[in-house]
From TrEMBL:
Keyword Hydrolase part of the UniProt annotation: yes
Organism expressing this protein natively: Peteryoungia ipomoeae
Protein name as catalogued: 3-oxoadipate enol-lactonase
Domain AB hydrolase-1: 25-253
Gene Ontology MF terms in the entry: 3-oxoadipate enol-lactonase activity
UniProt superkingdom: Bacteria
SUPFAM superfamilies per UniProt: alpha/beta-Hydrolases (SSF53474)
EC number: 3.1.1.24
One Pfam family per UniProt: Abhydrolase_6
Length: 264
């Protein structure tokens, strides 16, 4: 385990490979998860790929949940971690809210980007009303009250039936996140819309979505992809919101093909 203090908070991360490697991918996790959602990809990615994983603020073993935070803080944390580790350029891959963090990072620090992968995400996820309702429900009834509905969005019915042990494990992952960190991240999602940012992206960009995603459906992700000039859009079959867990081989194939393609 490795830790850095960024913006006054401890950030848990793991760097596998070289920070200055040309093939470095920086992964950003989704709401209610930590960087372990990316681990199933490791057996599928080539040995020449370097990886930076980190737990976003208020999630996993990272701190910062003791006071409210917003999207600007999540973006600043990632930028600060990259600077602290000496990362000058990388491919960034964000899932769900992690995808929004990557979009915000592009807005603030385009110098850091070689390529961008936006996985099961959009410039805006949900509505203010949806997030207000979720926040109010969790404040009243606890994080467990949102667990079953989250699992239904995260994973397909086939995953629920055939991989029940894994499902139980990811439910435990969600339940062990900080309540205040989860709620602050919900508020960040409520308040974020990067629709004006996507058209400014000038690096090669890949959008990926599971065909059964219940959080950011394929039509929503495809609409976002159309805002980015020249972006590529791909759908992974038999998959919901977290392809790195449900279909890691398919996601790795897309990532590696995208990484190998030369930038003009």
């Amino acid at each position: 385990m490795a830790f850095k203090t960024i913006n006054g908070n401890v950030v848990h991360y793991e760097l596998i490979g070289e920070a200055k490697a040309k093939n470095l991918i920086v992964f950003s996790n989704g709401l209610g998860t930590d960087f372990r959602i990316w681990l199933p990809l490791f057996d599928e990615l080539g040995d020449d790929v370097s990886v930076l994983l980190y737990d976003s603020r208020g999630h996993g073993l990272s701190g910062g949940a003791d006071k409210p935070f917003g999207m600007a803080d999540l973006v600043s944390d990632l930028a600060g971690l990259c600077d602290e580790l000496g990362i000058r350029k990388a491919t960034f891959c964000g899932l769900s809210v992690g995808g929004l963090v990557c979009q915000g990072l592009w807005q603030e620090r385009p110098d850091l980007f070689r390529k961008l992968i936006l996985c099961d995400t959009a410039p805006r996820i949900g509505t203010a009303e949806i997030w207000a309702e979720r926040i109010a429900g969790i404040e009243k009834n606890g994080l467990e009250s949102a667990a079953d509905s989250s699992m239904a969005r995260w994973f397909t019915p086939a995953f629920h039936e055939d991989r029940a042990d894994e499902l139980a494990g990811y439910r435990v992952m969600m339940m062990r996140q900080s309540l205040s960190g989860y709620l602050s991240t919900c508020a960040a999602l409520r308040d974020t819309d990067f629709s004006d940012v996507l058209p400014t992206i000038t690096v090669p960009t890949l959008f990926v979505v599971g065909d059964q995603d219940g959080s950011t459906p394929p039509a929503t992700v495809e609409a976002g992809s159309k805002l980015v000039p020249g972006a590529r859009f791909e759908v992974i079959d038999d998959c919901a919101h977290i392809p790195s867990v449900e279909q890691p081989e398919a996601l790795a194939d897309l990532i590696q093909g995208f990484m190998r393609k030369q930038v003009n």
